[in-house]
Design brief:
It is built from six helices and five strands, in the order ααααββββαβα. α1 (about 5-30) packs across α2 (about 40-50). A hairpin with a 5-residue loop joins β3 and β4. It has a three-stranded mixed β-sheet with strand order 4-3-5, with no helix packed on it. A two-stranded antiparallel sheet has the order 1-2. The protein folds into two domains: about 1-100, Arc Repressor Mutant, subunit A, CATH 1.10.10; about 110-165, Ferric-uptake regulator, C-terminal dimerisarion domain (Dna Ligase, domain 1, 2-Layer Sandwich), CATH 3.30.1490.190. The chain has helices spanning about 5-30, 40-50, 55-60, 70-85, 130-140, 155-165, and strands spanning about 90, 100, 110-115, 120-125, 150-155. By secondary structure, it is α+β, with helices and mostly antiparallel strands. It is globular, with a radius of gyration of 19 Å.
Amino acid sequence: MTFISPGDMKMQVNKDAEIQTLVGRVVERLRSRGLRRTRALDLLITEMARHSRPMTIAELTESESLQGQCDPATVYRLLMKLEEHGVVRRLGLHGRAVYFILVQPGRHHDYLVCTDCGEIAQIDIECPVRTLEQELQKQSGYHHVYHELEFFGVCPDCHQGAEHEGRAHCC
């Protein structure tokens, strides 16, 4: 039996409410641009908001909420439409599968990618490039300037496994 404290329950309710608010804003933005609201669209945006990390088409299609609801072709078409409208961003991380992340105005994430297993870890430190973005926007006249920053290395699990097998190496 799993016990959920009232504090944990409240945090989950707050997170669910945040996700639904975000989904509502995204859907309204899309509707104002003439896109039709569908169950598949709601499920996809909700899944991406829930995970808040880059995901592949396969990960999305196989997720609990989309499995059996949307085939990979539908997920792909929706992602292309969402990318076209600036709702998702496509990331090509170091020759691996294509990943998609939900664009949330005012929020930004950089990532650390394992070159062995492909694990993606979100970097939770203040991004020093933000100041450069603002300066570039001011000096160039460009609008909506953003960046994508990925660092690459070997994650602790892969490194430990390589050391154990005697194949760990230095840069």
